[in-house]
Specification:
single chain, about 0% strand, Transcription termination factor 3, mitochondrial, elongated, mainly alpha, about 65% helix
């Protein structure tokens, strides 16, 4: 008998709680999911997108991985592509690098050229350099504290480390140089 009384009081609380809550607002199922690239495409820098298309870059992949890059006002698509081609990269290599590391187009050409000179301190030739960039584009286009990086490369060279070891550190652990 006591348990009936307890159940009644609990059910009354639940009923009163339901009455206090506002009724749920129902929306169509598909309205809950929006296709993000449609919203983003209206905000995207159309010049950047067009330049990336000219370089045969898969824009959908960039939207999926790092769409924020396409929203930037100031980008250097052609300049970065030219620097990579000067190093010996063909069109497919340039497209692959820009797809895998789209933040490269936000780096200024002067900073990229400075990074290029730094990495050439440990690479035998430009062919080796472009192979490293193709394999590790994120490490190359992580441009922070370039003067500190240069000093650290010189320090490792003074310690007697071989350039092969230093280049592996540059690619595998770029934070060591910051």
């Amino acid at each position: 008998m006591l348990w009936k009384l307890l159940l009644r009081s609990q059910s009354c609380r639940l009923c009163s709680f339901r009455k206090m809550r506002s009724p749920p607002k129902y929306r169509p199922f598909l309205a809950c999911f929006t296709y993000t690239t449609d919203k983003q495409s209206s905000k995207e820098n159309t010049r950047t997108v067009e330049k990336l298309y000219k370089c045969s870059v898969d824009i959908r992949k960039i939207r999926r991985l790092k769409g924020w890059v396409l929203l930037e006002d100031e980008t250097y698509v052609e300049e970065i592509a030219n620097i990579l081609q000067e190093l010996g990269a063909d069109e497919t290599a340039v497209a692959s690098i820009l797809e895998r590391c789209p933040e490269a187009i936000v780096c200024s050409p002067t900073a990229v050229n400075t990074q290029r000179k730094l990495w050439q301190l440990v690479c035998k030739n430009e062919e080796e350099l472009i192979k490293l960039i193709e394999q590790f584009p994120e490490s190359f286009f992580t441009i922070k504290d370039q003067e500190n990086q240069k000093l650290n490369v010189q320090f490792f060279q003074e310690l007697g480390l071989k350039n092969v070891v230093i280049s592996r550190l540059l690619t595998a652990a770029p934070n060591v140089f910051h």
